[in-house]
């Protein structure tokens, strides 16, 4: 299928859904409201369902129908849970915008968070991805970007992100949090997009490292904001810490080399080992870490199965 952009098509908004129909419906309602005001006729929202339970998908489909946005909103369903990054990439089959925003399903918009970012991208052609100020569910500013992880940076005492001392002007950062990232399509394509090997976690750190390696800037823009309710889809998974460790090891091994991975794995082995005699969860994490093997060997992706009970129609 060939996607052809219309003359005014500027932005594609990609949202991955997994068993959170109510949150996703509220996200879509708020996004449609601000996009219709800020970018009328120049956007498309693509929602990718990542093999949710049938009743959750049907609930989402009913909510999408009530929004009555057939020209502005596309809902597609995967037969397998592809994970966050690959789910986002699948949305690009229906994308033609010059800019691509990846938005978590538990994100909501009180005002236009898109137009100011696009305006700044157009004024600064060397920026590959831009992000806005993240707010809590109560509307309080919270941390919106991160520092690249490594064994050495964990030895240093990094000052935690304090929104009161962050510059009011846009600032270059290591990576943006994945709840909301707005990419220049050219930059996203050049760096290869999200790595489909990652199932969950550290997708944003990985893609921002590759963008910066290709001389694209990664910028935090405090002049726009969104609300992030937090981990709506992840709550359905009992314990995500082992998957987080797997993803971190993989990103370090790929982007920083063998010893970066080995040193980080050793530091976690020591950390879990010191806490294991006193903490049941640390003992469990230690056992899983010892049995883990090479990065991604025991990823949740390997346990995903197709759903042949449902046919898109």
TrEMBL record:
The keyword Transferase applies. Keywords: Glycosyltransferase, Transferase. One of its GO terms (molecular function) is glycosyltransferase activity. The keyword Glycosyltransferase applies. InterPro entries: Nucleotide-diphossugar_trans (IPR029044). Gene3D superfamilies: Spore Coat Polysaccharide Biosynthesis Protein SpsA, Chain A. Belongs to the glycosyltransferase 2 family. PANTHER family: GALACTOFURANOSYLTRANSFERASE GLFT2, RHAMNOSYLTRANSFERASE WBBL. This is Glycosyltransferase. It comes from Rhodoblastus acidophilus.
């Amino acid at each position: 299928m060939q996607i052809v952009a219309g003359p005014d098509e500027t932005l594609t908004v990609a949202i991955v859904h997994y068993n959170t129909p109510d949150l996703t419906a509220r996200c879509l309602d708020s996004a449609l409201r601000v996009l219709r005001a800020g970018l009328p006729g120049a956007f498309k929202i693509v929602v990718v369902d990542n093999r949710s339970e049938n009743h959750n998908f049907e609930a989402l489909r009913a909510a999408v129908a009530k929004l009555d946005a057939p020209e502005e909103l596309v809902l597609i369903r995967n037969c397998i849970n592809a994970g966050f990054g690959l789910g986002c990439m699948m949305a690009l089959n229906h994308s033609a915008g010059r800019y691509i925003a990846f938005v978590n399903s538990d994100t909501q918009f009180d005002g236009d968070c898109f137009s100011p970012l696009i305006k700044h991208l157009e004024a600064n052609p060397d920026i590959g991805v831009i992000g806005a100020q993240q707010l809590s569910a109560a509307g309080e500013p919270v941390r919106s970007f991160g520092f690249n992880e490594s064994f050495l940076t964990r030895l240093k005492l990094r000052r935690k992100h304090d929104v009161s001392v962050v510059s009011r002007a846009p600032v270059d950062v290591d990576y943006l949090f994945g709840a909301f990232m707005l990419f220049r399509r050219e930059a996203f394509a050049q760096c290869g997009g999200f790595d489909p090997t990652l199932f969950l976690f550290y997708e944003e750190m990985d893609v921002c490292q590759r963008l910066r390696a290709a001389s694209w800037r990664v910028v935090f823009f405090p002049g726009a904001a969104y609300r992030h309710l937090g981990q709506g889809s992840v709550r359905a998974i009992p314990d995500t810490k082992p998957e987080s460790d797997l993803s971190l090891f993989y990103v370090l091994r790929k982007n920083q080399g063998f010893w970066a991975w080995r040193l980080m794995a050793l530091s976690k082995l020591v950390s879990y080992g010191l806490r294991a005699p006193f903490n049941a969860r640390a003992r469990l994490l230690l056992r899983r870490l010892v049995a883990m093997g090479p990065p991604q060997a025991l990823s949740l992706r390997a346990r995903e199965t197709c759903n042949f009970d449902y046919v898109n129609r």
